[in-house]
Design goal:
mainly alpha, single chain
């Protein structure tokens, strides 16, 4: 599998990220590092504890990383959750966090498939 095919699997913006980073090996480096980012674990913990600040910070980080890497679906889900938690805890947060989780799992699965060759 190529990196372009990986992006197709996760419905990402390969051309956009390649245009920003200008080097496929640099894109690959950051895509593979994504799997070690602790933000999703922090989001899970923040949502479980109804800790708005932790959940917001994690969602905001996920949104930013996803935007920079062209992970379109994950960016959208993270953005909606971050916006919802920006000011106060929302009863909608768990459902929105589930959307982030689903997009994250899809993204991680595509990256793992790419990594395995």
């Amino acid at each position: 599998m190529t990196l372009r095919q990986c992006y197709a699997l996760l419905d990402g913006d390969y051309e956009g990220v390649l245009g920003r980073m200008r080097n496929e090996s640099l894109v690959e480096k950051f895509v593979l590092k994504f799997l070690n980012d602790p933000s999703m674990d922090a989001l899970r913990q923040g949502i479980a504890a109804k800790d708005r600040e932790t959940a917001f910070r994690a969602a905001h980080t996920i949104k930013g990383v996803a935007q920079n890497l062209g992970f379109t679906e994950l960016y959208g889900a993270g953005s909606r959750l971050a916006d919802e938690l920006r000011e106060s805890w929302s009863e909608e947060a768990p459902a929105l966090a589930w959307q982030v989780e689903a997009a994250y799992q899809k993204t991680a699965a595509a990256i793992l498939e790419y990594q395995e060759g």
